[in-house]
Amino acid sequence: MDAGRLRMLRELADHGTVAAVAQVLSMTPSAVSQQLKILQREAGVTLIEPDGRRVRLTDAGQMLVGHADAVLAALDRARAEMDAYRSTPRGTVSVSFFPSGAAMLLAPLIIRAAERGVHVLGRDIDVPASRAPAQLADFDVVVVHRDERDASPWGPRFESTELLREPLDVVLPPDHHLAGRDQVRLTELADEPWIGVEGGLMVDDVLNSIAILSGVRPRIAQRINDFRVVEELVHAGAGVALMPRYVRLARELARLPITDTSMARRVEAITRTGASTRPAVAAVLEELRTIAAGISAATVGHAPGRSARPARD
């Protein structure tokens, strides 16, 4: 079986439509359909069947996708062995970040990777962490954040590199009656309006999990994904909000740890199984770990308090 056709089948499993596969591979839908039909003849079984106006993989097709991953991973390893003959990693590595992760990690990653001969092509995309497998159809590395209590496995087709654990604090208007405190309990914020985010994103997952664990269900007054906009609303007195501790604030806000429940996000870099054997990808993962370790070390013992520093969103 042709490796290119196997890759098309895998892309179909990830994207769900022939048109989407065609767009990813810069082909016409008719050309993709023709190649998939050839693969089906080579396999000798039905791999794809109609599903309304779309198509879906049969059980045999799903099984072949698993074999395709193994074949393509083996090809990646073969390419990596060829790359190993070079003295340094080379090439371009595409990396997707959630927005505040891009603000925190992307700039130093570009600089440090370039010093090793690797060009990082970064994007900031605000989608739930669960979309990482689909994003890996377009990126070599996908950096995600999720509630630290979320232990959902990524599955055998994907590998996770943990980068850091980042506590979440509450930010309050500077004239809030609790603003002078060093810390606060969640129960003291039970009657406050909260600035949340779109459902499915990390902060919303955290708010839902603490509601289940503590019995305190925050009253969401607004849903804003951009932390910079959240700052403005909190500063204006429209509500309180959760903010990752390493996100730099532009506004002078009170930033307090919550003591009666643990809240943090876990930042991970997700790759396809076998992708990290490519020297360029391995170099990017190594630099991400180093940068994240430096951020964690620099903020050990940092007291949230008031903040009026340059914005990181």
Automatic annotation (TrEMBL):
Residues 1-58 form the HTH lysR-type domain. GO terms for cellular component: protein-DNA complex. Keywords: Activator, DNA-binding, Transcription, Transcription regulation. GO terms for molecular function: DNA binding; DNA-binding transcription factor activity. Pfam families: HTH_1, LysR_substrate. Coiled coil: none annotated. Belongs to the LysR transcriptional regulatory family. This is LysR family transcriptional regulator. It comes from Mycolicibacterium porcinum. The lineage of its organism: Bacteria, Bacillati, Actinomycetota, Actinomycetes, Mycobacteriales.
